[in-house]
Amino acid sequence: MRLSVIGCGYVGLVTGACLAEAGHEVVCTDIDRERIAKLNGGGVPIYEQHLDQILMSARKAGRISYTADAGEAIRAGDAIFICVGTPGLELSRALSAYSRNSNLKFRVASNPEFLREGTAVGDFFHPDRIVVGVEDPSSAAELREIYRPILERSFQCPVHNGTCPPGQKVEFLVTTISSAELIKHAANSFLALKISYANVIADLCEKIGANVEEVTHAMGLDPRIGGKFLNAGLGYGGFCFPKDVQAFIHLSAKVGVDFDMLKATERVNKLRIDRFFEKIHQALWVVKGKHVAVLGLAFKPNTDDIRFAPALEVIKRLLEEGAVVSATDPEAMPRTKALFPQLNCHEDPYNALRDADAALICTEWDVFKSLDWGRAGNLMARRLVIDGRNIYTPQGMRELGFEYYSFGRE
Ligand code: UGA
Predict the structure, then answer these.
(1) pTM recorded for the entire structure
(2) In angstroms, what is the span from residue 283 Cα to ligand 1's centroid?
C-alpha cells in the first residue's frame, strides 16, 4: 500500500522505515526542513539499532522517500500515519472542518505503538499485540492489511536475518478509539508502577537485610506477576513513562477518578535520586571538590536519548554541590555536553575514571558490565563504586578491593 508518515521523529522514522521494509511504499514528511534534507542525503538523525540499515535498504529499493511538503506527502498515501503529538478528538473535528467543501472524507483510527527505544525495530516486527481503535470496520480492515506482513510473518527480518525465533501468534485487537488511547497510557503507567514497586522493595530490603534481586526474581517466577520491569535502581526516565504517568494522573483527576497510586509511583521515582545521593554522601562525606565519574548518561542503554534521564539530575546535583564531574556514554555524550558544558566527557571509560574519587553507574550499558575494574581501580584515586543500576555483584566488587554501594543489596 502507499502510506504517508507525518513526523520524522523517533516514532515516525521507525514506523516509516519498518512499514517500507515490510513492503509498503512510504512517503515521510516533517516540518523540520534540515531533517528532511539530512534524510534525503542518506543521513539518519537519531540513533536506533538497525534503523540505518533498513532506511538504506528501503531507499535503495525505492520504497521510502522524504519531502518537506506535507501536502505532497499526504496526497501520496492511501493511509496517513500521524506520528506527532495530536489530540485524537480534535483531529477528527479539524479534518471534518477542512474537508467540508471537498469530496474527501477522512476516517480516524488510533494505533498506539509499544516500541521501546533501543529495540524499536525488533518490537515493530515482533509485537506482542497490535491495537487499532476504530470508528468503522473498513478502517480496521485497512489497518489489518497494512500490518498483514507482520501478522503473517512474511517479512525479511532485519533483526534476526531471516531466522526469527518462533514466536506466538500476534494478536490484532480491534477496539474503540478511546480504549486504544487508554491502553497505551494504562500499559506504560502499569510498567512504571511495577518499577516503583520494585524500588520500594529495594529500600525495604536495605532496612531488613534482604536482597532485592532474590525477592524480585522469586516474585517474577509467578506468571501472574512476570519478571520484567522489576529491576530496582535509579528509577525510570525517558520521554514516555514520566510523561504518560503524568498524563494519566491528569486525565483521571479531570474525570473525577482517584488514581493516587500513580501519584505514589511518581513520588517514589523522583525520590530515587535522593536515595542515590544518600549513598553518595555516606561514601564521600563531602562532595565539594571531589572528582566523580558518571558512567552512563542515556535514560537506558542502546539509545542516545537523555530526556528525563536520571543521570542528568545526578550531574546537576553533583555540580551544584561543587564536584568535578567526568562522564562517559557510548552514544549520549554530545547531547549531555550541550546541557552541561563544564562536564569532562571521555569516549574511553577508563579515561573518565582516571583520578576519580568515585564512579557512579547511571545506565546499564553492556560496555560498563564488562569493564576491567582491576585496571580501573589502579587509575582511580579511590576504589569506590556507587551503582545506580545494580550491574555488579557486591561480592565481586569487594573482592577487587572496592567499596561498593548498590540498591537493595548488602
Ligand atoms: C516505553 C515502553 O516500554 C514501550 O512499550 C512504549 O511504547 C514506550 O515507552 C512509549 O511510550 O513510546 P521506553 O521509554 O523506550 O519504552 O523504555 P523502557 O525500556 O520501557 O524503559 C523505561 C525506563 O524504565 C528506563 O529509564 C529504564 O531504565 C527504566 N527501567 C526499566 C527500570 O528502572 N527498571 C526496570 O526494571 C525496567
Answers:
(1) 0.93
(2) 30
